[in-house]
Here is the input.
Amino acid sequence: MADRAVTGADVLVRTAARSGVRVCFANPGTTEMPLVAALDRVPGIRAVLGLHENVCTGAADGYARIAGHAAMTVLHLGPGLANGLANLHNARRANTPVVNVVGDHASWHLAYDAPLTSDIAALAATVGAVYPVASRAEVGTVTREAIEDAHRTPGVSTVIVPADHQQLHAPEPLTGPVTRTARPRVSSECVKNAAARLLTAGRGAVLLLGGTALTRTGQVAAGRVAASTGATLYSETFPACAERGGLPDIDRLPYFPETAAAALGDAEAVVVVGAADPVAYFGYDGIPSVLTRPGTLVRLALRHEDAEEALLELADLIGTDAPAAPAATIDLPDDAAALDGRSVGQVVASCLPEDAIVSVEGGTCGYPFYSASAAAAPHTVLTNTGGAIGQGLPTALGAAIAAPDRPVIALQSDGGGLYTAQALWTMSREHTNVIVLIAANHTYGVLRTELKRHGNPEFGPQAGALTSLADPCVDWVTLANGFGVPACRATHVAQLRAAFSKALAVGGPYLIEMAL
Amino acid sequence: MADRAVTGADVLVRTAARSGVRVCFANPGTTEMPLVAALDRVPGIRAVLGLHENVCTGAADGYARIAGHAAMTVLHLGPGLANGLANLHNARRANTPVVNVVGDHASWHLAYDAPLTSDIAALAATVGAVYPVASRAEVGTVTREAIEDAHRTPGVSTVIVPADHQQLHAPEPLTGPVTRTARPRVSSECVKNAAARLLTAGRGAVLLLGGTALTRTGQVAAGRVAASTGATLYSETFPACAERGGLPDIDRLPYFPETAAAALGDAEAVVVVGAADPVAYFGYDGIPSVLTRPGTLVRLALRHEDAEEALLELADLIGTDAPAAPAATIDLPDDAAALDGRSVGQVVASCLPEDAIVSVEGGTCGYPFYSASAAAAPHTVLTNTGGAIGQGLPTALGAAIAAPDRPVIALQSDGGGLYTAQALWTMSREHTNVIVLIAANHTYGVLRTELKRHGNPEFGPQAGALTSLADPCVDWVTLANGFGVPACRATHVAQLRAAFSKALAVGGPYLIEMAL
Here is the structure.
């Protein structure tokens, strides 16, 4: 008799909980009320509210990058999904598992084209696999398949579950917990081939690391290969999750295609391990899309494959025994120096506590921080792999919820930060230890550069206005306070170091507006 | 020779300017830099920056509802479009013309699946017609077709224009200015049929008005019909643009399907004029989707047809000569009374200056304001037709830019306001006369109601948290200040009246947090 009270929503949440889902980042609406109620009835999943869906999806991305398994979301119909798509795009590009649950109208109501009706499946298909729940009987099995797929791909699986299938009684699936598929291993032929190419190319080889090649183990293995062959090591430009500190100094592949092509174009072999084939971020007239010369690209491990294991096998085959020396010390800026990308990067890197997580979005401080952080204390860095801005703060939030014992720093450019500033509120509500450092230059800096690259060295007033965040300058201290986060402003190095050190000691959430 | 310097972006902007586009709400990225440069080279279109794409698309919606012709947007690739989709959904449901311009990678770069690549056309197709620019030669003609279509549908036309087709020389289209298609007129048979049904049904008839039936002329004509036949008048629940004040008191069709069905279910004839067929907003177990009894629905004018003209013809056929009496006076709350939906609605309605525009989002104060505003000074009300929240502030912004001489009031619930609070910044930058009234009850009120409707009278802590905006309460005064908008808080009637009157006298932007 008790079973008759089990709803489809209960089954969905139970299936998720049994599969290891522990957190649900949600902004529900009317059609998700049974799911909301089920989150109280079924134990094991913590519900976290975002004031905007892109906070929820970005947090789910950040969570899974750190936790190693998916969080779920609950979003409201097509518009709710649309609001969260940009950070689902980023999760897709980062190969992050996300179980993206979207409610739909009651199945029998869809035909009437009520105001909030739209093509949810078409939206969801742009970021991953789509799992529509076609009947109450299949809520459990479809949810289970979606969760398995999210971890197998890895990527975004969207479950679309009509309100009636949530609300009414549904049978529990008989199956046990989800079996987690390990990443596929690459063949030993593939490893041997890469080894041969590396040995032939010697100092003319590049190893381009991405995905799970950027674990601590993966980087140490890559360092052993580089030490024996003379190969140059690069990380992909925007790694989803990379260990840094106490490791060989692995720079990121440059962003602009001219410099990236210069880094790769002379190589006799470019061995990619867990990274996508290197291509230009944008297409520029007269600059090729492909950054490698024909015949030089060697794929050791694809993005979804076990890149770490491939590197270990490669290192056992051709690497030295001793790990490469870690990077040296960080240059420290003068206390009285003004804040700029370089000085901020150095201060942040030098103050970083061991085991910190740093979510980096935006180039102003992001690139200089990466240069300085090789010599920082061991930490994990998360970057915006997909390029849809508004990811840094939600990702930091999700990471903090995944690892409550680790300090999280969001090193965030102001333009992207303003996309999802609502994440500050959830940081406050959930008492997350996130310290937000806003690079406040009140400019879409990269666009000013791009205007010039596109032949507009002297842009006019409208282009100036469209690339400026001044007039008025957003007051981040006040904004943070409005969302319940204490904050201060720093204008020079000593101030930033003092404020950052104090925030690290006290714990977040805390925001520092860095006047650049 | 000079013509060789004309780029595809120039052609697009020139075509838009020649077609009457005067404003471009933009948040561009690298792939839209030629368009940004063209906005300076080509005169006639004012560029307005939004800090988030949903501000841009919502502003384009609000602009066109007031201006009567489309604004354009400039959005960045798939993620930029995704961010703006929710308010494009609303524009689609409101039948608002929007020329939605989205940049794409250089056409030759698309195949390489660079990080920001995604299926833009699939996203755009969920909100309207898609116009991909396949070559430089067709930039002008495709843009022109998209603009014509946006006004003909009316709705959202998305132009997808790759960066190379923007950047390089393109031929100007030879064609002259766009010809604006008038809304199709309904046949006189259709009018006669509706007249016959209304006369037969007498007091058992309902006229349900939407779209252009809600102009001043349309409502007066509807009043003449009601006066002669005894028919009851309703407006659709969420009109895109309705005139109010000095007119017959036309209530909105109730939101919840039980009450809406009660309003329509006894009718012998429900004549819809410019409105969609009345269906339940959401499907609830045991409650039919269709709100009318079989055989009672009569379609006088579809949403895209000339509903105003149809009503005029109907009134000439069967209406009285004299216009119906306008609504009486507004009940005024006690000065010392606390703020609640009713008292806020009455204060706002009673203070409203003639010719104001009121953008209403959210039920807390929205419904009571509508009840009170029939007796207010003549004004225009804009509501959220599509139901994707986060529309009220951007719509107010766009309306203010369309009508700089009219005061704009945004009567906004806090939950929806937090979706697109970034609109406050553009209100400040553009010195718009918008007065924002935030109904701050720190709750997703409608969801609390829906939880109960879904059989959860005593919801648990997680459901409580997911429907609460408290802990911490967002401080709207501080938030507004952070975005450069002065603000204050009001806790009772006299305070609200004083603050609102002063803000009206001084002019916006200004925000009042109403503590409910």
Remarks:
- The longest helix of chain B spans residues 77-93.
- Chain B is about 40% helix and 20% strand.
